[in-house]
């Protein structure tokens, strides 16, 4: 397994759409920040992020469905990112990028209002570390700058406690709740939240577990 990972890490270095910036590159100002459209994708299409993207199932799936939009998956695990990057390479997709970094640094990779949507798909709920939850106020403040007043956030989770925590934060900070359900696949909802399923999501559904989903906008005042 270790040898296989090393092979994948080496292959990751050959993918131009998989960016692995070092600490100094991030701190001095990431080269595509505020100019992803012009300098990386070479278009002015909307940019959608998937945070904690794992193997990039949502990033790739949405990019297939919406070739007129650009998608960027962010995760720190290079072994996971290899699968998504490999799929993009084999499919010859031009509207996808991946960044290997901690989600904590997301605000250093994009300029104000540069992102139109953010997907958070099955993150670690961090039930004992509130500040590390990807919907904690400290993270939402970062997303707020990237998204601007019209940007949309999506959360999919199998953890009801984390889902309820997010709803509490939305109400407490007067964000705009657009849709919420504790049982997505029996909710009648018919948008992208049900059109793509991750590997683990399918496992959870087969075991009878329910999937929660929240769609909301941030209060930018």
Describe this structure in words.
The protein is α/β, with parallel strands linked by helices and 221 residues long. It folds into 2 domains: 1-25 and 42-47 and 54-101, Rossmann fold (3-Layer(aba) Sandwich); 110-221, 3-Layer(aba) Sandwich (Rossmann fold). 37% of the residues lie in helices and 19% in strands. The protein has 9 helices and 8 strands. It has helices spanning 2-12, 23-27, 36-41, 57-65, 78-91, 137-147, 160-172, 192-195, 199-206, and strands at residues 18-19, 47-51, 70-75, 96-100, 117-121, 152-157, 176-181, 212-217. It has an 8-stranded mixed β-sheet with strand order 1-4-3-2-5-6-8-7, with helices on both faces. Helix 5 (78-91) links the parallel strand 3 and strand 4.
Q: Layout of SSEs?
A:
Blueprint: H1 2-12, E1 18-19, H2 23-27, H3 36-41, E2 47-51, H4 57-65, E3 70-75, H5 78-91, E4 96-100, E5 117-121, H6 137-147, E6 152-157, H7 160-172, E7 176-181, H8 192-195, H9 199-206, E8 212-217
Parallel strand pairs: 1-4, 2-3, 2-5, 3-4, 5-6
Antiparallel strand pairs: 6-8, 7-8
Helix pairs in contact: 1-5
